[in-house]
Hints:
- Belongs to the UPF0751 family.
- It is a single chain.
- This protein is of the alpha/beta class.
- Helix content is 39%, strand content 22%.
- The chain has helices at 13-22, 37-40, 56-65, 81-92; strands at 2-6, 26-30, 46-50, 72-76.
- Strands 2-1-3-4 form a 4-stranded parallel beta sheet, with helices on both faces.
- Strand 3, helix 3 and strand 4 form a beta-alpha-beta unit.
- The longest helix is centred in the C-terminal third of the chain and has 12 residues, at 81-92.
Amino acid sequence: MSVVIIGGHDRMVSQYKKICRSYRCKAKVFTQMSASMDKQIGSPDILVLFTSTVSHKMIRCALEEVDEKRTDIVRCHTSSGTALMEILEKRCG
């Protein structure tokens, strides 16, 4: 299962990836807006939007790139590791 995380804190990137690996998920994490982010997102199974730490422009870019029928879009106001674990527990078991 693939997960794309938009937002969050720079210092938590390795923690986010470690948490995703523990649920047997591949993770891409974007904490900053990059020029080619729209080409790198691909078609993930889960798109996690940490809304408290991300710009509206970055959210719009991510939402335009994913297919809402194939991707489970999750918006979360907190960007903690525990919040990510709860999201993955519900979706990945």
